[in-house]
Amino acid sequence: MRILITGGAGFIGSAVIRHIIKHTDDEVLNIDKLTYAGNLESLKEIEDSSRYQFKRVDICDAEDLESAFESFKPNLVMHLAAESHVDRSIDGPAEFINTNIVGTYTLLEVARKYWQGLNAEEKSAFRFHHISTDEVYGDLAGTTDLFTESTPYAPSSPYSASKASSDHLVRAWHRTYDFPVLITNCSNNYGPYHFPEKLIPLVILNALDGKELPIYGKGDQIRDWLYVEDHARALYKVVTEGVVGETYNIGGHNEKQNIEVVRSICKILDDLKPQTDNVSYESLIAFVKDRPGHDLRYAIDARKIESELGWTPEETFETGIRKTVKWYLNNLEWCRRVQDGSYQRERLGVSE
Ligand code: NAD
User: What CATH number corresponds to the domain at position 94?
Assistant: First the structure.
């Protein structure tokens, strides 16, 4: 198969491409604008494969997209390109509206026109897989409920509202044009090659530098953590075996409070790389002002993808977080290079 992947230089997209090149015979075209979050270094392991190519394209640019579709002739599209950081969406929503909504619309239209030109056999095999987030469902504060595929949308942040809009566009393109789409909504990912603005890599790197470990509010926000390589496997299963028009929720069955996550990282670092004075890294924890509009709890019911497609996560939080901490300890150079002077782990998204 020929798979066109948008956002393949990002955290999850690069994991998907590494998975496909290592474990299948498929060909991949990676389309990415290379924003601050996109790093081709995350693809070093597979960049020499004859089945992999890269094109620097902005998904808002219809002409460039058309020429990529015409030359690569994909059977499948996996759409991961997005602005993805909630704090940045609070400071500057415009890029989120542009890439996540206008960009998804532009890609849908280019892909639909390309699909209409295919022969009947190619047309029926074609799939457009839109990758989204559980944040579109809003906040589960004060309940023990789980997000299912039919939970109503109630996004809280500019980021999640832009992703909700893009999900609606994708569903409408199926209903209106019969365009063969699939949607997945997943929980918080973690693992190797995660840009250091997100909680887990930020805490690991700050701890190693002896800097404060900032906890928003009381740190009691609950997220369901999913190891990125488990997610990559799930996405490949959905795009190749999922039922057209369906949505699949993907989660790790790992509900943890943010403060628990940070304490786990500190314990692993105390074990693998103790501070010179042997004081636990937990001493660096600092409670800071909460994020405006912060959702308290997300949790995924992943029974549909398990029962219909036979996917379950392989990593528990305990095994996945240990692997992740070890990966960062062994790849500090990657972290320095991707930050590239433009982001120094400063606080974002305080809205003042
Ligand atoms: P990321 O920020 O690490 O990567 C996004 C990639 O998209 C980058 O390589 C960036 O250069 C590229 N990009 C941004 N704007 C673009 C544009 N206009 N044109 C082309 N490329 C552009 O994001 P991620 O964490 O890998 O997330 C991938 C997808 O998964 C996103 O759609 C996100 O909403 C979704 N998601 C992420 C998580 C998570 O925990 N990280 C959870 C649920 C859903």
Answer: 3.40.50.720
CA–centroid distance, 7 to ligand 1, in Å, is 6
Distances (CA, A) of 346 to 32, 234, 287, 352: 25, 33, 15, 15
> Does residue 249 fall inside a structural domain?
yes
Question: Does any domain span residue 11?
Answer: yes
**Cα atoms in the Cβ-side hemisphere of radius 13 Å centred on 115:** 22
Does residue 352 fall inside a structural domain?
no
pLDDT tens-digit map of 93-132: 999 999 999 999 999 999 999 999 999 999 999 999 999 9
The pLDDT tens digits of the residues spanning 288-307 come to 988 898 899 999 999 999 99
In a domain, 137, yes or no: yes
Judge if the beta carbon of residue 300 lies within 6 A of ligand 1: no
User: Which atom of ligand 1 is least distant from the CA of 195?
Assistant: 3
Mean pLDDT of the chain: 95
Q: Whose CA is nearest to atom 13 of ligand 1?
A: 81
**Residue 293, CA distances (Å) to 113, 246, 300, 316, 335 in order:** 39, 30, 20, 29, 29
Domain that holds residue 112: 2-191+225-254+295-317
Provide the domain count of the chain. 1
**Nearest CA-CA partner of 160 in 224, 246, 225, 87:** 87
